[in-house]
Amino acid sequence: MFEHFDINNFVIGKQSGVAQGIGVLDSLDAIREDVARRFAQSAHDRRSAFHTPVVATADADARVMVLRSFDEANWTMRFHTDARAPKVYTIARDSRVGVTVYDREANLQVRARGIGRVVLNGLLVDAAWESSTRFARRCYLGAGPGELADSPTSGLPPQFEGAEPGYDELAPARENFAVLLVEISEFDWFSLAQTGHRRAVIARESARWITP
Ligand SMILES: Cc1cc2nc3c(=O)[nH]c(=O)nc-3n(C[C@H](O)[C@H](O)[C@H](O)COP(=O)(O)O)c2cc1C
């Protein structure tokens, strides 16, 4: 078990201030706050492991996505995606979504479970689009994810390969842009420690310790 985890690299007390050990997080309330804070802050921290979680769908597929925001009041994560992506259709059929993070520095795994909803229009999507850079918007200008190709391709129109399109040129990309909201029902928190791992399940209205 945990073959990937090199116990020799783990030194108690050597963690950074952000990566708190289990000695600090010995209450379920503290874990609840810490997990929410890690997700909320990761949206602004590209180096955080929580910035690029693995997002799993009900078809046993999983992929890395950038977490754009975490609404601590509603336990809702926001991701951006292509409206034509296979996961969009999967979520429409079965909305169960899992979001998993392994933070090596913090010796921490968090598995979040929730319900996903893809939003194509409205103020939220408009705001997300407006906040995206031209470089990010360019991703939605070409062919949709998963199309067959005869040769290696970015899927982008040739004139936009390695170039940042102008705002006018990016207008057609907007209809391919979607927001994925995942409302989290519970976090499965797993803290690795040489002294003995710890695990807790933190739900919206309750929390409990469980064995690792
Ligand atoms: C570091 C990294 C970040 C990514 N971020 C996103 C993202 O924010 N949104 C997204 O839809 N795909 C993102 N991808 C691509 C997905 O992992 C995946 O390949 C793509 O969404 C294909 O769609 P599917 O999962 O529906 O088949 C990212 C990939 C990597 C490696």
- Name of the level-1 CATH class: Mainly Beta
Q: How many strands?
A: 9
**How many domains make up the 3D coordinates?**
1
Shape: elongated
Let me know the average pLDDT.
90
Q: How many whole angstroms does the radius of gyration measure?
A: 19 Å
Beta content comes to: 25-35%
Biggest sheet features: 9 strands, antiparallel
The number of helices is 5
What structural category arises from helix and sheet content?
A: alpha+beta
Low-confidence stretches: 1-23
Helix content: 10-25%
Distance between the termini: 11 Å
| CATH fold-level assignment | Pnp Oxidase, Chain A
> Which architecture name does CATH use?
Roll
**What is the CATH homologous superfamily assignment?**
Electron Transport, Fmn-binding Protein, Chain A
Order of helices and strands: HEEEEHEEHHHEEE
GO molecular function: FMN binding
Domain Pyridoxamine 5'-phosphate oxidase Alr4036 family FMN-binding: 46-118
Pfam family, one: Pyridox_oxase_2
Protein name: Pyridoxamine 5'-phosphate oxidase family protein
How is this fold's topology laid out?
Layout: H1 28-42, E1 54-57, E2 62-64, E3 67-71, E4 76-82, H2 86-93, E5 96-103, E6 108-119, H3 123-130, H4 134-138, H5 167-170, E7 177-191, E8 198-203, E9 207-210
Antiparallel strand pairs: 1-2, 1-5, 3-4, 4-7, 5-6, 6-7, 7-8, 8-9
Bound molecules: flavin mononucleotide.
Pfam families: Pyridox_oxase_2
Organism: Qipengyuania soli
Domain Pyridoxamine 5'-phosphate oxidase Alr4036 family FMN-binding: 46-118
